[in-house]
Amino acid sequence: MKIAIVQGNPDPAGGHFGHALAAAYADAAKAAGHEVKTIEVAKLEFPLLRRAADWQEGATPASILEAQDILKWAEHYLIVFPLWLGDMPALLKGFFEQVLRPGFAFGEAQPGRLPKKLLKGRSARIIVTMGMPAFFYRIYYRAHSVRNLKRNVLEFCGVSPVRTTLIGMVEGKPAARAAWLAGIAKLLP
Fold this sequence. Notes:
The protein is an alpha/beta fold. It is built from 7 helices and 5 strands. The model has no long low-confidence stretch (mean pLDDT 95).
């Protein structure tokens, strides 16, 4: 299987738990015979979109075209990011706005119909790390940002199934981190 890993931590220096998770997933996938390509969102140069016309008709930056090539190539996506203020980091949101443009992620809508989903045939796994307990985020906050990414972004473009993994209380828990890293292969498609 062809797997694209989208590393959504906005720190270009790396070294965070999400980076370790993505690397462990890539290693496990390669060991299982899968092909893997990684998109490090923090290392891409692209502007934030400010007008609908820019999103619909504006020039697509070269770094985004390269990311689109990887996403088009892949059959499965792994998206890893830390929860910031209850949502994905702004840079990752900006990346999705740039990369999932009309004509790439979905086609033109016909009158009275939804747009054609151009990313059909792909699946995804979303891994979110957070400082709060994962069950609290899932129950109390209803995992709103993850549900939004799953339903309103990925599934809207045709990606299905989309599975989620929430990892809470990541700060100061070396034994729990080690267990997640050791068991990451269980999350492979």
